[in-house]
Design a protein that fits this description.
The complex is a heterodimer of chains A (1054) and B (473).
Chain A lengths: L1 H43 L7 E9 L9 E4 L2 E7 L5 E7 L3 E5 L6 E4 L5 E5 L10 E4 L2 E4 L7 E5 H5 L6 H5 L6 E4 L10 E4 L12 E4 L2 E2 L11 E7 L2 H4 L10 E6 L5 E16 L8 H13 L14 H10 L4 H5 L3 E13 L3 E13 L6 E14 L4 E15 L13 H7 L28 H6 L2 E20 L2 E20 L4 H6 L2 E24 L2 E26 L12 E26 L3 E12 L8 E12 L4 H4 L4 E15 L10 E8 L8 E8 L8 E14 L4 E13 L2 E5 L8 E5 L2 E16 L3 E18 L5 E4 L13 E4 L6 E4 L2 E4 L5 H6 L7 E3 L14 E5 L4 E11 L2 E11 L2 E3 L1 H7 L27 H7 L19 E3 L2 E12 L2 H6 L4 E15 L28 E11 L1
Parallel strand pairs in A: 1-7, 13-16
Antiparallel strand pairs in A: 1-4, 2-3, 2-5, 5-6, 8-9, 10-15, 11-12, 13-14, 15-16, 17-18, 17-50, 18-19, 19-20, 20-21, 21-22, 22-23, 23-24, 24-25, 25-26, 26-27, 27-28, 28-29, 29-32, 30-31, 32-33, 33-36, 34-35, 36-37, 37-44, 38-39, 39-40, 40-43, 41-42, 44-45, 45-48, 46-47, 48-49, 49-50
Helix pairs in contact in A: 5-6
Chain B lengths: L1 H22 L21 H16 L31 H23 L6 H26 L2 E2 L15 E2 L1 H18 L14 H16 L8 H15 L22 E5 L26 H6 L4 H6 E2 L8 H4 L4 E2 L7 H6 L6 E5 H15 L5 H14 L17 H15 L6 H7 L3 H4 L2 H4 L13 H6 L10
Helix pairs in contact in B: 2-3, 2-4, 3-4, 4-5, 5-6, 6-7, 6-12, 7-12, 12-13, 12-14
The chains are: A mainly beta (1054), B mainly alpha (473).
Chain lengths: 1054, 473
């Protein structure tokens, strides 16, 4: 105990030691500096001097005056100013001095004064972007100085997309980043994976850092507030985040006001969405015929069943059509998005206030998402050596939708029911009540789709407050201390009520649930940086002491048996049965980290970092984890022999190695736990005794998952920066995977969480950016492609782990998604389906007791039986490669933007199709079922009982009844190429906007998901009904469908 | 110089701010608030008692243990189905459930050994009696199913990491006897009405008598335990705390589930219900647990048969005509409304007075190499009630004229009928070593001598190389 305290104390002292060390360096620096200052004073005579002149000037670019350009005297950066909102500046400098003009996005320019008292400067836009500043963990770096692998997305790229979400805006824009819109619901889920999956149970979500505050959430963020998005991919970039860095890091920087006149900006976006692709279903008449065929086939042992629908009824359906359930539950949905912001800056104060209102309807009735967001970013210089900043962002989100997806019991699921409900049944019965499915055909347990869609009363609300503030001290030249504090407080309240018109409500006599979560997160980061250039050496040191604390309190009430339906969850006293629960957990993370960036002659670059993370969630014997990284880069373009080639405008070769971690341990998981919650009437009374039991054993050795990553990369620029290429190869090995290790059950417990198991990833990435056309007709293009392979190396002594990703009604209620030791991540296991036995194959079919028209399964071991021994790999859920191609074309005042994006080489298990294509289903595909005349069908025939009895065959096919549809028949190619977005914008000419006193005015029309090329037959290939574990990705089961969206919008400022 | 001072002012100011931030630095030790760790549990009487509830819940929990019927024992002659080609992992759910209960009981016993602050010695002793009663019962079930076992007690240092070998059957019985003996010494003769479900002294005596009887038969075959069994069972009969229900139809009725006959049971009520009653009836329900028709036909026609077996539907139509299997009526005494809603509050007895009478009869007969009057009286109390206090040629009363062997057979038959579907028949087939001869023809063909023990679970064998498998698996 004492030793541990000493250890903690030692760590507490560490930042002081660091501070003192830096101070030492810096104080000696002061002396040198002071000397320099004095000599300059001597030279210039402090203040006015005969040699000084006042230079007045204007800085412009091609468009016009440029505010906010820094103008400084080379050799003394204390003599500095910046241009005002008309691009004008005034500066007092020695008449033989040289001025440096610099501004982000422009090429810096040096102009000798030569006694000129007035200067007119035109800056050129910088296409090489090498001088751009890139945000990195706990700091920023010039892009040319980077030694790690980082993808950057700028605000202009995000602003051009009519998307309401940051995570969606990333899709297709960064190599190695897989973004899956796993469902189409408003405010729905996305899954983002950077360079594959590293973990099985520890989670694979990237760390999100918004303005330095870690662990943020992209959905609550207003995309219009974003200045830049940086995606850190290799260990050199991510190891600075230590035990949270293994899955990559997404750094978000929000906008600040810009020097100049205050700008008021308003944007509006309105859109119409409709279902992207409908399943092809039988009409009522065909469905009635199908139902009859299935009924009549049950003619075994002398039984002669009657048809269910008479000819007259079928005639009537033919004439009147029947019910199109898809039209009943889907709609054209309208979305409006308003944004208003005010921003500006003086020399000392810089501000931005922005608000947004998003009201999004879903295409499924009764689904919507609303978001109010408000942000205030303020920065101020208090003195010449102290500054502060405050970013406050608040949002209120409300999302609601009827249940959908795989985890929802299917009678409740309107998405599944609408496709499967009989078109012969009207929406309402004769009494005006919701109709019910028939007991005699179809699926008698299906609930009315309209009732399932509109009757649930669901409201999931979240209020989030993000606050980050800092104080920054320029202690000495080059030495800066930033003390920042941040907090994120979120309140989540999920309400739901299912009344008697819903399946569950009818069973339970009304069913309501209230879930409250109160989460708080606090972060304090103390960052000391020292930057020094001497001769050809450039040194940048960063040292950070950081502490984080988070806690979560949640409570829930589930109630049923309501006497009064109207009051629902607003009067729980009226509920007969209530179960309640609550829980609390918290976590402390203390960290110390340091980084050295060193470059020599801008040619040889070195970055090394080291982080120590102490986390309360780690086991007692492993409280501290250590995460080193190192990287080297060689800017070959600075070598004369490369310069002489005259090919490259940039050439850099990078190599990095490092270790990052994944803190996928829940608080208290390393402790032994006594749990409550089991009931047993030990006393024999009418009450039950509450049982407490040991639910888990302690594992004091439990620690983080550890990922070692090596990356080799190349950055090359050609044609004066108009073409740039970035290529990376990486290899990652994750060890100490957190998995339940089986215990002998005689211990009393089945398993204990332990660090067992290992996974590997390797991949290549290529990103090309270019400006093929400049001038009147402009074309900017970016293309990226990446391939990743994830391999399961070790599962801690077991060969495979199975995941159920289907449902009992579909014959998929047994695992078919597997992690198999030594194989690729995301295997699908089942039986091979080779179509239907043809008449010519009758003899072969008879070996399995089958008739022509029966399913033909692959007999792997050729033993004449189809059973558990014939299971094999029938698909894989992860793409072989992913790509994106984005383009911006400009001509005069028109802009044309399009993004093409896609994935290649993955499979989807189309669970939804099973029920539709089974006998008596609703799929139009059934019209093409096998008959002796139509032998080239993969849909088995309906073979009547009498024919089977006469054939007198004994089937050798024994597939488990709850898992007999785990067959390759439902496995489809999930590859696709998609025109994700296309936008045409018009910028009103300056002459016009000036007349109506506007700064600018832009209108646009846009379409999302306009065109998708895929072999996948379901609604959308970018689907996953199960997102609980990455091993379950790639199953399509009654999920919320994706939509096609058309937008119109305008963007103006004044 | 002024500059220097200025620099130091900046430094001091910023260091103070930094210091304030770091002062708040939190410790990394975890102190959970939403649950307790075992170190801070097992401190009060109610906390100890809560482990009795959880240990019984582990055995009774639906789907994985005794709560969901008798599937594990379907190889006997009473239950429909079964196959004496016993597969790997057979019974592993019960192995895990019993050891889970034992784990929780061991933690309580260890705490009681240290003593609870503020709890009297008498109360502590009584808690110890309950804990040991329950532990002994768990080991008694395990040893009969699996034979030699990893013997885990409160003194086992760290069962989660230690590799533990199987202890011989005699060592397991040593612990069982010791635990029940403690229980007998410390448990009350009766509990107040509010605690009537708890184990009593006589329940401990009855179970220990059953333990002795089992030790006297296969596999230990130590006849010296017959007199001990007879003595303990005799004490329970003499004490008169428990008695038979007079009416056979009342034995399993809901209002007598804590009556004079039931000594200790798996309990259920509306808050913690038993498994859906549809499993007990093939005629009205799903019939997961149904009666073997061949066995039903050997059941004497008597009042007891109608009380214990469901052989016809509500209209009096026989199961054969319905194309169904007979149901287990013992557990179908719920109301019709509860049955339809899938609710059941029946108890399944672990030890009851009829069992004690038959234990006495069997043990006393064997101890004296022939039936004594006391043995005859004991068994006839059961037979008379079964026949509705009439003479029945199919199940006649026992007499002194019977030989020791014939009387023994009569006792086993009576146990077969009286205690049917009470997790008892399988163990009678084992300890009397009559599994093969009593098996129905369709499963007899797969019989081997190895069927007398279930296999040790594969998971445990794989993870602990010290464990050995039972022969034949």
């Amino acid at each position: 105990m004492n030793r541990k305290l000493t250890k903690i104390n030692r760590w507490l002292i560490a930042p002081y030691l660091c501070t003192l060390l830096f101070t030492g360096i810096a104080v000696s620096e002061v002396k040198a500096n002071a000397a320099g200052l004095n000599s300059w004073h001597a030279k210039t005579g402090l203040g006015y001097s005969a040699a000084d002149i006042v230079v007045l000037g204007t800085v412009k670019d091609k468009q016009g005056p440029l505010p906010g350009v820094t103008v400084e005297l080379i050799g003394n950066n204390k003599i500095v100013t910046s241009t005002d909102n008309k691009g004008n500046f005034s500066i007092k400098v020695p008449q033989n001095g040289t001025l440096l003009f610099r501004s982000v996005g422009y090429r810096s320019i040096k102009i000798p004064v030569n006694g000129n008292r007035s200067l007119e400067i035109t800056l050129e836009e910088d296409n090489t972007s090498l001088n751009e500043v890139t945000v990195v963990g706990y700091g920023s770096q010039k892009k040319s100085d980077l030694t790690g692998s980082i993808s950057s997305i700028k605000s202009q790229d995000i602003a051009l997309l009519p998307t309401q979400r940051v995570d969606q805006a990333i899709q297709g824009r960064a190599a190695g980043v897989l973004v899956l819109n796993t469902d189409g619901s408003p405010g729905g889920n996305t899954t983002i994976r950077i360079r594959g999956m590293n973990s099985i149970n520890g989670g694979n979500n990237a760390l999100i850092v918004i303005d330095g505050l870690q662990g943020g959430n992209l959905t609550s963020l207003n995309p219009n507030d974003i200045e830049s998005v940086e995606i850190l991919k290799d260990a050199s970039a991510t190891a600075i985040y230590g035990s949270q860095g293994a899955n990559g890091v997404v750094l978000i920087t929000t906008k600040q006001g810009k020097i100049g006149k205050p700008i008021i900006r308003y944007t509006f976006d309105g859109s119409f969405a409709s279902i992207a692709k409908r399943p092809d279903l039988l009409n009522a008449a065909d469905y009635a015929r199908e139902t009859n065929a299935v009924a009549l086939a049950k003619n075994g042992s002398g039984i002669n069943p009657l048809p269910i629908f008479s000819d007259a009824q079928i005639q009537d359906f033919q004439k009147n059509g029947g019910t199109n359930w898809l039209n009943v539950i889907y709609r054209t949905a309208f979305t409006q998005n308003h944004q208003l912001s005010v921003s500006g800056a003086s020399e000392k104060v810089n501000y931005l206030v922005s608000g947004g209102y998003l009201d999004q309807q879903g295409i499924l009735l009764n689904s919507q998402y609303k978001r109010f967001s408000l942000r205030t970013n303020i920065k101020a210089d208090m003195t010449s050596w102290a500054a502060f900043g405050l970013n406050w962002a608040a949002s209120k989100e409300n999302a609601s939708s009827p249940p959908f997806g795989g985890s929802t019991d299917w009678p409740n699921n309107p998405v599944g029911a609408a496709a499967r409900f009989s078109p012969t049944i009207p929406v309402y019965d004769a009494n005006g009540n919701y109709s019910k499915s028939s007991l005699f055909y179809g699926n008698p347990t299906l609930w009315n789709p309209l009732a399932s869609a509109v009757e649930p009363q669901i409201d999931n609300g979240t209020i989030t407050n993000n606050l980050s503030a800092y104080l920054e001290f320029k202690l000495l030249t080059g030495l800066t201390l930033r003390i920042s504090g941040g907090a994120r407080i979120a309140t989540q309240q999920d309400l739901s009520y299912l009344n008697l018109n819903t399946f569950t409500g009818a069973q339970l006599n009304g069913s309501g649930a209230i879930l409250d979560n109160q989460s708080e997160y606090y972060q304090n980061s103390n960052i000391l940086t020292y930057d020094k250039t001497f001769k050809k050496h450039h040194l940048n040191l960063t040292a950070v002491a950081e502490q984080k604390y988070d806690k979560l309190f949640s409570s829930s009430i589930n109630a049923s048996d309501f006497l009064v339906q109207q009051t629902a969850i607003n009067d729980l006293s009226g509920a007969g049965i209530k179960t309640i629960g609550s829980s609390f957990n918290d976590r402390v993370v203390n960290s110390y980290l340091g980084r050295i960036n060193y470059s020599y002659a801008d040619k040889y670059l070195l970055t090394a970092s080291y982080r120590a993370d102490g986390s309360s969630v780690f086991g007692k014997n492993n409280k501290w984890g250590y995460f080193p990284s190192a990287s080297l880069a060689w800017r070959a373009v600075q070598e004369n022999f490369i310069k002489d080639l005259n090919i490259f405008s940039d050439l850099k070769i990078r190599a990095s190695w490092g270790i990052t971690g994944n803190q996928g341990i829940n608080p208290y998981q390393t402790l032994a736990r006594t749990s409550s919650g089991v009931l047993y009437p030990y006393d024999g009374s009418d009450a039950a005794n509450v049982g407490f039991y040991l639910s888990s054993a302690a594992n004091p050795n439990l620690k983080w998952e550890s990922t070692a990553q090596t990356d080799i990369g190349l950055d090359a620029g050609f044609f004066n920066g108009r073409l740039s290429v970035t290529a990376d190869y990486y290899k990652k090995t994750t060890t100490n995977l957190l998995m339940p290790r089986q215990l002998p059950t005689y211990t009393g417990l089945g398993s204990i969480l332990d660090n067992v198991g290992s996974m590997g990833n390797k991949g290549i990435e290529l990103a090309i950016e270019g400006t093929p056309l400049v001038g009147k007709f402009q074309w900017n293009a970016g293309f990226n492609i990446s391939a990743n392979k994830t391999t399961v190396l070790d599962l801690g002594g077991i060969d495979k782990i199975g995941y159920i990703s289907g449902g009992s009604g579909s014959g998929t209620n047994l695992p078919f998604m597997y992690l198999v030791k030594g194989q690729d991540f995301g295997q699908m296991l089942g039986w091979g389906y080779q179509g239907v036995w043809k008449t010519s194959q009758a003899a072969q079919a008879a070996r399995y007791g089958q008739l022509p028209g029966d399913p033909h399964y692959t007999d792997v071991n050729n033993d004449g039986k189809i059973n558990i021994n014939d299971m094999k790999v029938i698909g894989n859920s992860l793409p072989k490669f992913i790509f994106g191609f984005n383009n911006r074309l400009g001509y005069k005042n028109f802009e044309f933007i399009f993004l093409i994006q896609g994935v290649q080489g993955n499979n989807i298990f189309n669970v939804s199709r099973i029920a539709l294509e089974s006998p008596g289903g609703t799929s139009a595909g059934l019209l093409n079922r096998w008959t002796p005349q139509n032998q080239n069908s993969s849909i088995p025939a309906i073979i009547d009982q009498r024919t089977r009895e006469q054939a007198n065959l004994v089937s050798t096919i024994s597939l488990p009844s709850t898992g007999n549809n785990r067959i390759s028949r439902w496995i489809e190619d999930g590859s696709y190429v998609r025109l994700k977005n296309v936008t045409l914008a018009y910028n009103f000419p300056k002459i016009l906007t000036d007349k109506i006193k506007l700064h600018n005015l832009k209108v646009y029309v846009s379409a999302t998901n306009l065109l998708t090329i895929t072999k996948y037959s379901g609604n959308d290939p970018e689907v996953s009904s199960y997102t609980g574990n990455d091993a379950q990705l790639g199953s399509d089961f009654n999920n919320y469908p994706q939509s096609k969206i058309f937008n119109i919008g305008l963007n103006t400022s004044f | 110089m002024k500059n220097r001072k200025f620099q130091l002012k900046k430094l001091n100011f910023s260091l103070i701010v930094l210091l304030v931030m770091i002062m708040g630095c939190k410790k990394l030790d975890e102190h959970p608030k939403n649950f307790v760790t075992p170190d801070s549990f097992y401190k009060t009487q109610t906390q100890i008692e809560s482990t009795f509830a959880s240990s019984m819940n582990a055995l009774w929990t639906a789907w994985s243990a005794y709560g969901y019927g008798m599937a594990v024992f379907s190889h006997d002659d009473q239950l429909a189905g079964g196959d004496l080609n016993i597969p790997a992992n057979w019974g592993s759910n019960l192995w895990a459930a019993h050891y889970n209960a034992i784990m929780n009981l061991n933690l309580s016993i260890a705490a009681l050994n240290k003593g609870l602050s503020g709890v009297s010695k008498a109360n502590t002793d009584q808690l110890m009696g309950q804990a040991k009663f329950l532990r002994a019962y768990n080991y008694f079930m395990l040893v009969r199913m699996f034979g030699a076992l990893p013997l885990i007690t409160e003194e086992t240092a760290d069962p989660f990491t230690a590799k533990i070998a199987r202890s011989p059957i005699t060592d397991i019985y040593k612990l069982i006897i010791s635990d029940f003996t403690t229980a007998i010494a410390t448990l009350p003769a009766t509990w107040p009405d509010a605690q009537r479900g708890r184990p009593t002294m006589d329940a401990a005596k009855g179970l220990l008598a059953k333990v002795y009887l089992t030790m006297a038969t296969y596999p230990l075959n130590d006849a010296s335990y017959y007199p001990k069994a007879a003595d303990l069972a005799g004490q329970v009969i003499q004490a008169g705390t428990y008695d038979l229900e007079t009416d056979i139809n009342k034995v399993f009725a809901l209002d007598t589930k804590y009556g004079k006959e039931m000594m200790f049971s798996f309990n259920s009520n509306y808050v913690a219900m038993a498994t859906d009653p549809h499993i007990w009836s093939d005629i009205d329900g799903w019939g997961d647990e149904s009666v073997e028709p061949l066995w039903e036909q050997t059941f004497p026609v008597q009042a007891r048969k109608d009380a214990y077996l469901q052989t016809q539907d509500a209209n009096g139509v026989n199961y054969k005509t319905l194309g169904r299997l007979p149901g287990i009526k013992k557990y179908l005494y719920d109301t019709k409304a509860d049955f339809d809603a899938g609710r059941s509050v029946v108890n399944i007895p672990i030890i009851r007075f009829a069992d004690v009478l038959l234990i006495f009869a069997e043990a006393d007969n064997m101890a004296h190499s022939g039936p004594t009057q006391a043995a005859i009286d004991a068994i006839n109390r059961v037979i008379d009630r079964a026949n509705g206090y009439t003479v029945n040629a199919q199940d006649p009363r026992a007499t002194l004229a019977l030989s020791a062997a014939d009387f023994d057979t009569k006792v086993i038959d009576e146990r077969n009928w009286e205690l049917c579907f009470e997790y008892d028949r399988w163990f009678d087939l084992i300890r009397k070593h009559i599994l093969k001869e009593k098996s129905i023809p369709s499963i007899q063909q797969n019989f081997s001598d190895n069927d007398y023990l279930f296999p040790v679970p594969e998971n445990d064998l794989r993870l602990n190389p010290l464990l050995t498998q039972n022969p034949g698996y």
